[in-house]
Design brief:
By secondary structure, the protein is an alpha+beta fold. 36% of the residues lie in helices and 20% in strands. The chain contains 8 helices and 8 strands, in the order βββββαβββααααααα.
């Protein structure tokens, strides 16, 4: 028996429409409340031969959102707000830095009469930890889970508390201008606080962590805060880190991060003996 070859129907010759999508277009408009960004994409649709060519152009707005404008206020050296500037740098977020002269500013202009302060859409926010916590939430530098985020806060609170206690000693070893030495600079109180309390705690955290970061598998703002404290100590008093290899290597990793070049002292590669 011979079967008749079935011919293709006319309708089967018409192929599906081809859609060509251009690259997204970002439109920016600045206002007093921030930068308004809208992302649009154009799409061309046409049918293949033999149908008449039909082209339809369409511009779809994929997403529209408001990006805050930031102005960071701090004294000329900007040392206290370094961790905030590092967050901006890592996140690729533009900001303006407003230099505040120590002899010419009105303390009442800032929240809780303290600096640094972050002006966001014409509102000012004080406290380094609050600023960091908010920016980290916006730009994915918080803990990835509620538990991890609580641990990040726990570490940050303790590290910042110690930093405030030994701030004068840090200024002393950094040879800060207009620094007046006191008992804290000469009695070794700061060094004992670090080597007997804070550094052992951080070393244990790093030993228990699932990666070389303090919490989880990615960098958080707690890593930046710790690096800002430890880095000048490694540079000026490296012997204080001789019993804390993980903390030393952690600081080396942050200091050599491609997006953070220039923020911290270069950390020399150092070999530690296994205990």
């Amino acid at each position: 028996m011979f079967w008749k070859k079935k011919s293709k129907s006319k309708s089967s010759l018409v192929s599906a429409p081809i859609r060509a999508t251009s690259l997204p277009t970002i439109n920016e408009k600045s206002t007093s409340s921030g930068r308004h960004l809208s992302v649009s994409v154009s799409q061309n649709t046409q049918k293949n031969f033999p149908s008449p060519v039909q082209t339809r152009k369409k511009m779809d707005t994929m997403h529209g959102f408001l990006v805050p404008t930031y102005t960071l206020h701090d004294f000329d050296d900007g040392e206290e707000c370094k961790v905030v500037r590092m967050i901006f740098q890592l996140s690729g977020v533009p900001f303006e830095f407003k230099h505040v002269h120590r002899d010419d500013y009105i303390l009442e202009d800032y929240p809780f009469y303290a600096l640094p302060a972050l002006e966001m859409n014409e509102r000012k926010y004080g406290s380094v930890l609050s600023i960091c916590r908010h920016l980290a939430w916006r730009y994915s530098l918080s803990g990835k889970t509620a538990y991890d985020d609580a641990q990040v806060d726990d570490i940050a609170e303790k590290v910042f508390e110690v930093r405030m206690r030994i701030k004068n000693w840090i200024d002393h070893i950094e040879h800060a201008a207009d620094h007046a030495c006191d008992e804290e600079c000469t009695e070794g109180t700061a060094a004992r606080l670090l080597t007997e309390t804070l550094f052992p705690c951080l070393e244990r955290v790093l030993k228990a962590a699932p990666s070389s970061w303090l919490v989880g598998h990615t960098m958080t703002w707690a890593d930046l805060l710790v690096a800002c404290l430890v880095n000048p100590i490694i540079y000026h008093r490296p012997k204080l880190l001789q019993d804390f290899p993980l903390l030393y290597l952690h600081n080396e990793k942050v200091a050599h991060h491609d997006d953070l070049v220039g923020f911290l002292y270069h950390v020399r590669t150092r070999k530690f003996q296994d205990k």
